[in-house]
């Protein structure tokens, strides 16, 4: 019964919340469709935290998407041990990179007072869910090896069964606890997505990739002290001219 709720019902609830929530927020609060960046408050830690996190998570998500879309080709690719080892090690490296970046993000939010003030409760919930997701993913990669193969052979058919509105959870129900936790937490992240800063993913400014280059010129007014000195020198010259 619990497996039916977690792996057959929860996915549809999460997707409905995702669609309804994102559409409602865009229509009612479109100005909040942003990452709400705190880069202006602190940039050094921001850079070294966000860069590894983004590169790592994009690579991990791309790997999941490929295994979901073309599982047979992935299994064929993994039929050679060397290629399987390279793929598994690469996935683990990107997973660890994601975790390092995420831990740095959380540490920055905790240690910098200005950044901590602008961190909402929803942000902390989001970070907790993401940390659990990344940790469980790395744990699975280390202790339940060859994930790229069993994901393509077991998890991909489960996800396709959800798309066909005919959930088949038999294989997932037999998975180890950490694998189940990883899957359930993924649905929770999707359900919570519309209420977080993650919505900025949906409005990435792709037009920057093909727009024409712009020339930017900075105009800087002289400082107040420089203006006063200029006025003073001008006044002195006028007095000398009169005398």
How would you characterize the overall build of this protein?
- The protein has 243 residues and is mostly helical.
- The chain has one domain (2-215): Up-down Bundle (Fumarate Reductase Cytochrome B subunit), CATH 1.20.950.
- Helix content is 72%, strand content 0%.
- The protein is built from ten helices and no strands.
- The protein has helices at 2-28, 44-69, 71-77, 81-111, 113-117, 121-143, 147-163, 170-173, 177-192, 224-242.
- Helix 1 (2-28) runs parallel beside helix 9 (177-192), helix 2 packs antiparallel against helix 4 (81-111) and helix 3 packs antiparallel against helix 7.
- The longest helix has 31 residues, at 81-111.
- The radius of gyration is 26 Å and the shape is elongated.
- The model has no long low-confidence stretch (mean pLDDT 86).
Describe the main β-sheet briefly: none
Summarize the helix and strand pattern as letters: HHHHHHHHHH
Alpha-carbon Rg, integer: 26 Å
**Name of the CATH architecture:** Up-down Bundle
Report mean pLDDT, rounded to a whole number: 86
Supply the CATH superfamily name: Transmembrane di-heme cytochromes, Chain C
Task: Provide the domain count.
Answer: 1
End-to-end Cα distance, whole Å, is 102 Å
Counted beta strands? 0
Q: Give the helix tally.
A: 10
Helix content: over 70%
* Shape verdict: elongated
Low-confidence stretches: none
């Amino acid at each position: 019964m619990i497996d039916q709720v977690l792996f057959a019902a929860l996915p549809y609830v999460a997707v409905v919340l995702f669609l309804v929530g994102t559409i409602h927020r865009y229509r009612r609060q479109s100005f909040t469709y942003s990452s709400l960046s705190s880069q202006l408050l602190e940039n050094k830690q921001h850079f070294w935290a966000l860069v590894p996190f983004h590169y790592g998570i994009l690579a991990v998500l791309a790997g999941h998407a490929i295994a979901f879309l073309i599982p047979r080709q992935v299994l064929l690719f993994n039929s050679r041990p060397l290629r399987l080892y390279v793929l598994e090690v690469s996935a683990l490296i990107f997973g660890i990179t994601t975790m390092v970046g995420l831990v740095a993000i959380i540490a920055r939010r905790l240690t910098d007072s200005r950044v901590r003030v602008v961190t909402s409760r929803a942000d902390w919930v989001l970070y907790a869910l993401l940390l659990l997701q990344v940790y469980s993913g790395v744990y699975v990669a280390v202790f339940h090896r060859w994930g790229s193969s069993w994901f393509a052979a077991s998890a991909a058919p489960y996800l396709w069964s959800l798309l066909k509105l005919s959930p088949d959870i038999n294989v997932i129900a037999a998975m180890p606890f950490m694998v189940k936790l990883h899957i359930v937490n993924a649905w929770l992240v999707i359900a919570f997505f519309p209420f977080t800063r993650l919505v900025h993913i949906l409005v990435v400014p792709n037009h920057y990739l093909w727009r024409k280059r712009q020339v930017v010129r900075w105009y800087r007014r002289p400082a107040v002290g420089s203006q006063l000195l200029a006025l003073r020198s001008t006044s002195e010259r006028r007095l000398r001219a009169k005398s």
